[in-house]
Specification:
- With about 700 residues, the protein is of the alpha+beta class.
- It folds into 5 domains: about 5-150, HPT domain (Four Helix Bundle (Hemerythrin (Met), subunit A)), CATH 1.20.120.160; about 165-300, Alpha-Beta Plaits, CATH 3.30.70; about 325-380, Helix Hairpins (Orthogonal Bundle); about 385-560, Histidine kinase-like ATPase, C-terminal domain (Heat Shock Protein 90), CATH 3.30.565; about 565-700, OB fold (Dihydrolipoamide Acetyltransferase, E2P) (Beta Barrel).
- The strands form 5 sheets. A 6-stranded mixed β-sheet has the order 14-18-19-17-16-15.
- A hairpin with a 2-residue loop joins strand 16 (about 605-610) and strand 17.
């Protein structure tokens, strides 16, 4: 049975991808006006969006897309040049399409609450006609069109009735359309091509071949296309423009477009198109009809038997769309498999059994790890789509700030877990906004005086480094004003006037809530509520953020993230009778130390000296209030960890083992406990809590840990 909801769901998914791609490509086109490949890509995307919307019944969206497509066709054919106003209006068109798509998602009518459709059409048509006075063009139809068309109201019916009889244009083409049996699988309805042809000319001599349609009792697959078409077309369009209508199907289907030598000859009778069987009854078919019949016999017939069609469906696709909830469920199952595998490994090590079973268990362990890695790879997605969305964002900020800044992207294929990818957008947006407003010089003259290009550059890059994803956002602007930040931090009580601080320590204060060096508050920045959000979001993803800056030359923000948040490598350690886990990525080293290396620090805690460097010491059993027999520093183990810019030393009873653990979220009653990020289930069935290194470092810096 035909499932319209399924088709609409597929359409929404694909449409959102197309709109995102178009948005990025249009901004790129503004800077690369002569890039024919890019222009063709934009045109194909717009055509696909129009056709897809029409196929699933969203006519308003399809008509709006059709107007935009006509404008793009004129640019593509060289009749119009790309202008900033044109790009602005086309971006407005995409914003409107986004609203319509959201309406569909919300179960509303596609145009509900979208009141700029007609004015937007007028703007696009005006630009297509060469009128750059967009505002005038947009308001003109509202004022003049009703008055101009009122006298013609009574003649509407007459005009419509005459349309099929009037000449469609100076060019005549004969078109044979032989579609694959599986064309519906791509969300394409052959009837939409007839509508597109009708929109550019007059269709005559339409022949429909439905000889391959099986009897209703034998019709097993409703998604199989059996009908083929042949027609004549009179139009003012060129053969290239007609071919563009079939742009996405002409290679995979049997589409033949030829010029009619003697023009289109009208049939004497005017009955409705008949089946091919009726045409065969004629004793003396016209030469043109004979050619059509011969062409049809030469065309490959569609795969009428349902089993063949079904077989083609299985083999054809190279990709499969999967609901992310299914991936999450699969990931949870893999997590349970890892836990069970750890349990089996632990049991086999404690039992006196033969080597054959141990080898089998080891083999199963390797296989489960491979399965886990493959599932993780499925969840991995390139950062490119997130990066590309900022072309539009930078362009909008350029217009708002009256600046000229270019965005350069590097490392778009770099992959990261999908769930983390979705959380990256906001931090990156805040960083770019700050770079645009505070970083890049306010005037071109100021940049030229410094020996820089007149336009600024923001570079976003991504790369894999040591099991992490490193994302950098750099600009070639002013750089951070260390003195101004330092004075503001003292004013806010974040730094001491008498203290000695490194550049990194001073720069880090910009991530504090309420700290801003902006002289005035704007809609873009100045409230001091942006960079603290960046830090919070990065730390939420178990990552860290660093700053490098050189005054007068620019700044770089470096975000370092784990590849995934689902499964981590950890070190298990004992604390009294409890078992805890410490993420391996945070551990620098572990060592035995002596009591004389410990020094009290102003009654607020302890410092430990390691190779001429003093680090805060955290006695974890005191933080968690756990009874332990290992109280002396020389009886336990000190683990040096790193979070952000800071290192600290954590004192534990003993280190046990290294193993993979599946992160389980805690109940809300426990999730806010400082120093705990989650939990897991060990191989022996016990629950172990996972240490939040960043949280421990933060509370140590705030002087909330007193080991004495």
């Amino acid at each position: 049975m035909f499932d319209s909801d399924e088709f609409i769901s597929i359409f929404l998914s694909e449409a959102n991808e197309i709109v995102e791609g178009l948005e990025n490509d249009l901004v790129l086109l503004e800077d690369n006006k002569s890039d024919e490949d890019l222009l063709n890509k934009i045109f194909r995307s717009a055509h696909t969006l129009k056709s897809s919307a029409g196929t699933v019944g969203f006519t308003t969206m399809s008509e709006l897309n059709h107007v935009a497509e006509n404008l793009l066709e004129k640019v593509r054919s060289g009749k119009l040049d790309v202008t900033p106003k044109m790009i602005t209006v086309l971006l407005e068109f995409l914003d409107t399409v986004k609203l319509m798509l959201q309406n569909i998602i919300d179960g509303k009518g596609e145009a509900e609450g979208v009141d700029n459709i007609e004015s937007l059409k007028a703007k696009i048509k005006a630009i297509a006609d060469g009128n750059e006075d967009i505002e005038t063009a947009a308001t003109q139809p509202k004022k003049e069109t009703p008055k101009a068309e009122e006298p013609k109201e009574s003649a509407k019916e007459e005009v419509k009735a005459e349309e099929p009889e009037k000449s469609g244009g100076s060019n005549a083409f004969h078109i044979d359309m032989g579609f694959k049996a599986t064309i519906f699988d791509n969300g394409i309805d052959p009837l939409m091509f007839l509508n597109d042809l009708k929109a550019i000319g007059t269709i005559k001599n339409l022949k429909i071949d439905y000889s391959n349609v099986p009897a209703i009792s034998a019709l097993e697959d409703p998604y199989t296309c059996y009908t083929q078409f042949a027609l004549d077309l009179e139009t003012n369009s060129t053969i290239e423009q007609v071919q563009n209508i079939f742009l996405f199907v002409i290679d995979d289907n049997d589409i033949n477009i030829s010029e009619a030598k003697d023009g289109v000859q009208e049939e004497k009778s005017a009955p409705q198109p008949q089946a091919v069987e009726e045409t065969k009854k004629e004793e003396t078919p016209a030469p043109q009809e004979t050619k059509q019949a011969e062409a049809k016999t030469e065309q490959p017939k569609p795969q009428a038997p349902a089993p063949k069609s079904a077989s083609a469906k299985v083999q054809a696709p190279s990709t499969v769309r999967v609901d992310t909830r299914k991936l999450d469920s699969l990931m949870n199952l893999i997590g349970e498999l890892v836990i069970a595998q750890s349990r089996i490994m632990q049991l086999t090590q404690s039992l006196d059994i033969d080597n054959g079973l141990k080898e089998a268990v080891s083999s199963m362990d390797r296989t489960s790890r491979q399965i886990q890695e493959e599932v993780m790879n499925i969840r991995m997605m390139p950062v490119g789509p997130i990066f590309n969305q900022f072309h539009r964002y930078v362009r909008d900020l350029n217009l708002e700030l009256n600046k000229e800044v270019k965005l350069v992207l590097k490392g778009e294929p770099t992959e990261i877990d999908k769930n983390m990818l979705e959380q990256l957008s906001d931090p990156l947006k805040h960083i770019i906004r700050n770079s645009m407003d505070h970083g890049i010089e306010k005037t071109k003259e100021a940049r030229i005086e410094r020996g820089k290009p007149e336009f600024g550059t923001i570079t976003m890059s991504a790369a894999h480094q040591e099991g992490h994803v490193v994302i950098e956002v750099s600009d070639d602007g002013n750089g951070l004003n260390k003195e101004k930040i330092y004075n503001k931090a003292i004013e806010k009580g974040l730094l001491s006037k008498d203290g000695k601080y490194t550049d990194a320590e001073i720069y880090r204060t910009i991530f504090s809530p309420g700290l801003s060096t902006a002289e005035k508050i704007t809609d873009i920045s100045g409230r001091g509520v942006g960079m603290d959000v960046v830090r919070a979001n990065v730390e939420k993803m178990k990552g860290k953020i660093e700053i490098k800056s050189e005054e007068g030359k620019g700044s770089t923000f470096i975000i370092k993230l784990p590849l995934t948040l689902a499964i981590i490598e950890g070190i298990t350690f004992a604390l009294g009778e409890q078992i805890y886990i410490m993420p391996l990525i945070s551990i620098i080293e572990q060592m035995k130390v002596k009591n004389e290396q410990i020094k009290p620090f102003e009654g607020k805690g302890e410092m430990i000296k390691i190779r001429d460097e003093y680090l805060p010491l955290i006695r974890l059993h005191k933080v968690f209030d756990i009874d332990t027999q290992v109280d002396d520093i020389d009886k336990g183990i000190v683990v040096v960890v790193e979070a952000g810019y800071r290192r600290c030393a954590i004192f534990v009873d003993e280190l046990l083992d290294q193993q993979q653990v599946v992160i389980k979220s805690l109940d809300s009653a426990f999730s806010k406990h400082s120093g705990i990020s989650g939990g897991t289930i060990l191989g022996d069935g016990r629950i172990a809590l996972i240490i939040d290194i960043q949280g421990l470092v933060n509370i140590s810096l705030q002087g909330k840990i007193n080991n004495v």
